[in-house]
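Let us practice reading a record.
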Amino acid sequence: MTTNPYAATDADLDAWTRAVIGTHFDPETGTPYWLEWAADRGVDVRAEIDGFADIRRVFEPFDEDVLRTLPVEEFAPRSLTGTRRVYETGGTTGAPKRVVMAEYWREQAEWAADLLAAGGFPTGNVLMLGPPGGANNAGTFVRHLAAAWDALPFYVNMDPRWAKRLARSDPTRLDDYVDHLIEQAGRVLDTQRVTVLFTTSRLLERTAVRDLVADTSVEAVYHGGTALDPDTHRVFREEWYADVAFVGEYGNTLMGVAQEPFHLRPADGRDYSLDYAPCYPYFVPEVVDGDDLVDYGERGRVRVTVLNEEFFIPLLSERDEATRVRGEAPLEWDWLRDPAPATDAASRGIEGVY
């Protein structure tokens, strides 16, 4: 069975699935929500789950509204003790969803750092421009990424809920807010040695950000948070940001990081489509049409199962669509190509800067 050479576990997917199920369905130290779920249905989940394929048989699609309303302790195993933190989603498509985590985002940052290093990506101080801080995962991710590089993180955070309100009520004020963010980033870059700019593709479309990268010490752009189409990706790589390393990541607070393996499948060899390798076996995105996996090269809805000893989410339908593509060694599992909000999700969210 395939394992991930950059993950903290060397377990294959089936073994890891059994370990995670064992954690969350332990009668004494498991997760209150999942123990009640199993009792209500009369299911011995630990006996029923022998591998990942059994997830589809035992569980129905997860209702994400649970994470909007449930007291957050109910969704964490009792075995998760010590220093913990409540994380929440950005709330751009509804009320935020919340989970408790301890080490997950450190592990996600270390996976990304190791994969970036394998491709020779520059390392050094990081400036995060745009993604939210506070209870969102992005700030924690950047902090641990900088720590993996023995470097320092700097932050210019936005409030995506405020940006959503501005976009709907007064787009001019949204532009003023974005200009404010970029101005703050300029002040950091004027005085600090920053190697990596971590930001969103929407902000990279601003000429002011292009000028910041061109006129400062930035050697690499690391983008995520919003969709990036192949045509814009080509312009970024060949024109606007041609003089710096340029790499993307795809993910969210609940899922984790799917990293662009740029050294395994170069951008020009895939017509500037964005390919992302998920951090297997911690989460498994599947591209589906209804309940069925689509064929390779076909597009469908992204459905994610998060297999984390800190929290477990089966068969969560994401807002995005993507194309299912085969991975490359040593990341020999399904990758996602060109994820972007589905039509129904796009109508509910604001993606102007995040």
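A brief commentary: The radius of gyration is 20 Å.
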